[in-house]
Amino acid sequence: MNGPSSSLAAGVQDAVVAAVASCADEAREAWAFTHANPETGFREFQASGMLGDMLARHGFAVQRGVAGMPTAFAARFGAEPAEASVGFMAEYDALPGIGHACGHSLSGVGSVLAGIALSRVLPEGTSVQVFGTPAEEAVIPGAGGKLRCIEAGLFDGLDAIMMCHAAARDVLETTVAARTVLNLEFFGKAAHAGADPHKGINALTAAVQTLNGLNGLYQQLTPGHRINAIMTDGGNVVNVIPEHAALAVQLRAPTRAELDSLIARVLDCARAGALMTGCRFTEEQPSPAVSDLVPNRPLLAAYAANAGRLGIHPVSELQTCISTDAGTVSHHVPCIHPFFAVGGDPGLELHSHAFVEACGREEAFRQLCTAAGVLALTGYEVLASPDLRKRIRDDFLLHARTDTTSNSTRSL
Fold this sequence. Notes:
By secondary structure, the protein is of the alpha/beta class. The protein folds into 2 domains: 12-175 and 292-399, Aminopeptidase; 178-289, Alpha-Beta Plaits (2-Layer Sandwich). It has helices at residues 12-22, 24-36, 45-57, 104-119, 145-151, 203-218, 256-277, 297-309, 326-329, 353-359, 362-384, 386-399, and strands spanning 61-64, 73-78, 84-90, 126-132, 160-162, 165-167, 174-176, 178-187, 226-233, 244-253, 280-284, 318-322, 335-336, 339-341, 409-411. The strands form 4 sheets. A 6-stranded mixed β-sheet has the order 1-2-4-3-5-13, with helices on one face. It has a 5-stranded antiparallel β-sheet with strand order 9-10-8-11-15, covered by helices on one side. Strands 6-14 form a two-stranded parallel sheet. Helix 4 (104-119) crosses helix 11 and helix 6 packs across helix 7. It is elongated. 52% of the residues are buried.
């Protein structure tokens, strides 16, 4: 974590680097255990417990089970009330079946390390908070722990909130799309497939026609829009006309407004499939939609400068179509979500077995420690500089907007 001399207050950079190093052994234990014992959303009892305990050992007041989530926590250190406050978001959920293929075994520990390091250099009259935010992965019903934190008011009053996510490369900012999942169910009528097929109503055919419609629609989508669908039910036995079929459809778009428009077009395809076959269909969003991420330029600039101090030089932008509930956070609180390289192959893909393996290597942990130091230094600058806080706030008010986070369920 050596880097060029810093323009920060004397000794701050050295104190942050020393704080990260002093916590390395217990951080390594939490990372290694979490990586080897992946837990899916809202079941991350061991991971959230270890991280909360670590913060408590370092003087943080830790509240567990916040926002109605047993595996969420809110930890605070410093003045209360505070003249200024920054927050770090910790993720620790894994993907079902594959494990920590998104690197949350690293990023959650990184936010905790950053919070502890910042607490060692905290300016007088300020505070640092670390939030355990479960179920980032959208495959869990009700996913989006950060959305529940917003609704509970946990992020209210923060001057900035941050986290750093594992990736193949060091990235300052990337395109983060709005996202939702639709569960489409089709209801028909069972009948003997050989003797009386004409007396049935084939729900599977309705689902297949919907998929055909989505495939046609996909050709006409503008750049940045995504539709990914799987069939979750297509019938039980081959000699019965299927009376029930179901699809799970994930949608992404550059903004929430574009996402709403895409939802309407997908539902038109489902409606057409149902009309063709005489079926009834229902639509449900099992989790709230998440928004695109609004980059806060002054906060990103501070992070980039501190990354350089510790020897990291992230690329300015990388066009992708990933999504995260941190996007919605950025419309409520000034927020950044940069990425740190886990090391090894720069072509590694998230959500792959190769990425799971990379996130379990010692090199990834070393990179995590550096990223935690960058977050802590950035947090210090926010707390120490009223001018930076004003520029962050002005940029936020110029670009952010409030988004709804409610579920919607309706029968059509």
